[in-house]
Design a protein that fits this description.
Elements (H helix, E strand, L loop, with lengths): L1 H9 L5 H30 L4 H12 L3 H14 L4 H13 L3 H18 L5 H20 L3 H15 L8 H6 L7 H11 L12 H4 L8
Helix pairs in contact: 3-4, 3-5, 4-5, 5-6, 5-7, 6-7, 7-8, 8-10
């Protein structure tokens, strides 16, 4: 009997408190290891350039455009044809006021996508539509309205859903009746032919509502 008692006393799990502590520690260790595994898997299995593009997108949302541009450039170094990085570069230029560089970047992206898209690449066509729309905004604000109208139409023809306008939450936060590519195209189509040389169709409060797109 004394021998049995000695064996029980030597067993660390004979105490409910020790057992409970052990279970908690094992649960914590399992959670930590799973989290580490998930992060490592996400990083190692993510297509080249995606990680850098996600970082760039965060900087874009924080209006840190130089930092965003650096991350998109880093993505293109490891994946030269990464269309998300190309669009990110264009938006970094556009949102920081470097419109000439933004237009050149979008024109390059449009040419690249038109030459490389597969017919069933829905994400690719969404990106192409966004590129047309974003370039149209640049042209529109420069009073190059006929060129802008052509790009708005191409955006709508390519993938209207991708550029249909902000979602419900965005409308609540910013504007209940925002400008959309379709609205702007209709407005331009009704007025562009009556413009005199050098005349602009600028409506500051409406122009400010136009949103750029990044699929």
């Amino acid at each position: 009997m004394d021998k049995i008692r000695l064996m029980i006393s030597l067993n660390p799990f004979s105490s409910p408190q020790v057992t409970r502590r052990f279970i908690i520690l094992m649960a914590i260790a399992t959670f930590v290891m799973f989290s580490v595994w998930a992060v490592v898997k996400s990083y190692t299995q993510t297509p080249a350039g995606d990680y850098e593009v996600r970082q760039g997108d965060i900087f874009l949302s924080d209006k840190k455009y130089d930092d965003a541009l650096e991350r998109f450039n880093a993505a293109l170094k490891v994946s030269p044809e990464h269309r998300g990085a190309m669009m990110g570069r264009a938006l970094s230029f556009l949102l920081s006021g470097r419109t000439a560089e933004a237009e050149a970047e979008l024109t390059s992206l449009i040419g690249f996508l038109k030459g490389h898209l597969d017919p069933d690449d829905r994400t690719g066509f969404g990106t192409l539509a966004a590129a047309y729309n974003n370039r149209a905004i640049i042209l529109d604000r420069q009073c190059r309205h006929k060129e802008a109208l052509a790009d708005y139409i191409e955006a709508l023809k390519t993938d209207e859903v991708a550029v249909e306008g902000p979602g419900l939450i965005d409308r609540i936060l910013h504007s209940p009746n925002p400008s959309t590519p379709r609205k702007r195209a209709l407005f331009l189509s009704q007025h562009v032919d009556t413009l005199k040389q050098g005349e602009c169709l600028l409506i500051p409060e409406k122009d400010a509502e136009e949103r750029v797109y990044k699929p």
